[in-house]
Amino acid sequence: MEKEIFTATSSANYIRVNLDAITKNVNILRSLAKGHTGLIGVVKGGCYGLGGIPVTKHLASLGVKEFAVATVAEGQSLRRAGIQGKIHVIGNFTFVEIDKIIENDLIPTVSWADDLKDVDKGKLFKPNGGKFRVNIKVDSGMSRFGVQCEDLHSLVQTIDSLDVQINSIYTHFAGGIMDREGNQAQLDRFLDCSEDYVARTIPRHAAASTGCFQQIGTDLDYIRPGGSMYGLCVANDLPSTKMFQDLGFKPAMSLVAQPTFYKLLPAGRRIGYDGLYTTKEPEWIANIACGWSDGYRRKLSLGVGAVKNNRTGQLCPIVGRVSMDFCTIKLPQKPHPNETYSLITDDFAEKTSCASMARNLDAATDELTSTFSTRLPRVYTSKNKIVDILHAVDYCN
Asked: What is residue 196's DSSP assignment?
């Protein structure tokens, strides 16, 4: 199928998104929650770099009926693409967003009533006459935005006085997979301060990906996973990654490329900007048309990173600097015709997986995928067949 994809994309590299892996991951997440618990799919950042519209549509095909984005613009993009169901904006609401929120039937997050008070009360209705809806974010210990636990009651009273509907009350855990105690303490504070609203049947949710793995808050009204749906572990340390892998999660994204040029260089040749690598003997060097403008990190230069030969399984080190548009790799021998290489593999392998690269770069796993640019086409596959393509540059992620 690789030859077919290279031809279809007219590109020497592409991101492949395995929709079957996403299906598997969603099923695992549902199994970690109670039967009555719904799933809000977090699709912010273009589904963490995998491509917002095609992946959200796939989630909808799996029965996911509610989605969460970080910004109003992301929600607007989903509506333009025909995405139905509730779309929650989990960034804190400001009054300048009100028109776009109402126009696109989005549900904003509020942590105080200040911005709601600044809105003309006549605007606090949807086009169909329904009440304006908000989600309340509670700061149970993350200490970013969110109403303090002791101030929740006052905020609810103010929102009620504005005749605004409270869609849900939620919180977010600060701790990683290994910090069960800290996340449980946050959940306890959240449950305690929000208990009075159970009688009003206001839904509550707390568990994002980490809470799902720990099964903390998975018995509330919703779980709210993001990166785990795409096979991205929320932490890069080995114990967390092993736990994630043992649960059966499968990375959905890989990055594949063909060399655009290769040559046999004599010993003593310096390679790349600043000439930081020198050949020690005659060496085969290949050029890959993928650099830091595409999202492939400069810190992967000089052997920190490697790519996998998809025919032999051999790892080929990055030599010289990763530049804006290119990187160079050292090959063990002259490449076979049409040989391909994986810059990111859809597994947990050392050097080439997102989890390993994140450890080596001291980065978040989903940070890596989220920064790949639209210069790279996205190819969506299921059952080893192409089902959709987002061509390079022609789309917004």
From this structure: G
| pLDDT tens, position by position, 256-314 | 999 999 999 999 999 999 999 999 999 999 999 999 999 999 999 999 999 999 999 99
Distance separating alpha carbons of residues 262 and 331, to the nearest angstrom: 9
Quote the DSSP letter at residue 210. Answer: H
DSSP states along 94-153: -GGGHHHHHHTT-EEEESSSHHHHTS-GGGSB-TTSPBPEEEEEEESS--SSSEEGGGHH
Q: Could you give the residue ranges of the DSSP H alpha helices within the chain? A: 2-9, 19-32, 44-48, 52-61, 72-80, 98-103, 114-117, 152-161, 180-194, 209-214, 238-246, 354-361, 365-370
CB atoms near residue 271 (< 10 Å): 18
Task: Specify whether 48 is catalytic.
Answer: no
Tokens of 101: 């929120």
Q: Is 206 helix (H, G, I), strand (E, B) or coil?
A: coil
Q: Quote the tokens at residue 283.
A: 């060496």
Query: Does the pTM exceed 0.85?
Result: yes
DSSP string for residues in 338-376: T--EEEEBSS--TTTBHHHHHHHHT--HHHHHHT--TTS
Answer yes or no: are the C-beta atoms of 234 and 249 closer than 8 Å. Answer: no
- 22-43 pLDDT per residue, tens: 999 999 999 999 999 999 999 9
Q: How many CA atoms lie within 13 A of 372 on its CB side?
A: 29
Tell me the C-alpha distance between 109 and 167, whole Å.
10
Q: Which of 222, 273, 277, 296 is catalytic?
A: 273
Q: Look up residue 230 and give its two tokens.
A: 């795409």
Of 29, 87, 28, 5, nearest to 53 by C-alpha is 87
Residue (of 194, 222, 249) closest to 365 by Cα position: 249
If one counts every other C-beta atom within 10 angstroms of the C-beta of residue 168, the result is 23
Q: Which amino acid is at 387?
A: V
Under a CB-based contact definition with an 8 Å cutoff, are residues 40 and 67 in contact? Answer: yes
* Contact call for residues 29 and 212 (beta carbons, < 8 A): yes
What is the Cα–Cα distance from 318 to 330, expressed in whole angstroms? 7
